[in-house]
Amino acid sequence: MTTWVLAILGVLHLLWGVGAIAAPRWFFDNFPGFGRHWTAAYPPYNEHLMTDVGAAFLALGVLLLVAAWLRDRKVTNVVLTGLLVFSTAHLIFHARHPGNLEGADLAASLVSLALGVVVPGLLLIVSGPRSRRTENTPPR
Predict the structure, then answer these.
(1) Is the peptide bond between 44 and the residue preceding it cis, with omega within 30 degrees of 0?
(2) Which of 10, 14, 48, 71 has the highest CB neighbour count under 10 A?
(3) With the CA atoms of 130, 132, 133 and 137 taken in that order, what torsion angle do they form, in degrees rounded to the nearest 10?
(4) Domain hosting residue 103, numbered range
(5) Are 118 and 88 a contacting pair, CB within 8 Å?
(6) In Å, how far from its chain's centre is CA 121?
(7) Does residue 104 belong to any structural domain of this protein?
(8) CB–CB of 20/57 below 8 Å?
(9) Which residues contact 62 (CB under 8 A, 6 or more apart)?
(10) Nearest to 60 by CA among 41, 35, 87
């Protein structure tokens, strides 16, 4: 299950990253899509910032897909820890600064950002680190 969730998260981050890099103005005006405009609720538009955000999403997407591909506990834990740090900082900012979002859009935005913290946190627990003693103990 962890592999599939890593792959799904990787693809999502890649899509967001490519969108923000290839069409930063469109990304700013339309993210997350479905008629919602959450990023545009934080004006003014800044092409450099949107491209940098896209690069961060792209990097996270690649790392998540590499972790899914390798299926290595240590790699997975490192990637999920990085995602958890990013997602926690992202959630804290938006919880403190709602921009022009209100009502259902603000609630949906915060819930989606909270899921960005909860999902990697749960995956870290599920894929949790084995003790060094267990990993370094030769098989009998």
Answers:
(1) yes
(2) 10
(3) 90
(4) 2-129
(5) no
(6) 12
(7) yes
(8) yes
(9) 10, 14
(10) 87
Residue 70, domain member (yes or no)? yes
Number of domains in the chain: 1
Sign (positive/negative) of CA torsion 119, 121, 122, 124? positive
60, two tokens? 């996270």
CA 65 to chain CA centroid, nearest Å: 12
Q: What is the pLDDT of residues 51-108, one digit of tens each?
A: 999 999 999 999 999 999 999 999 999 999 999 999 999 999 999 999 999 999 999 9
pLDDT digits (tens, 9 = 90+) for 14-33: 999 999 999 999 999 999 99
Residue 56 within any structural domain of the chain: yes
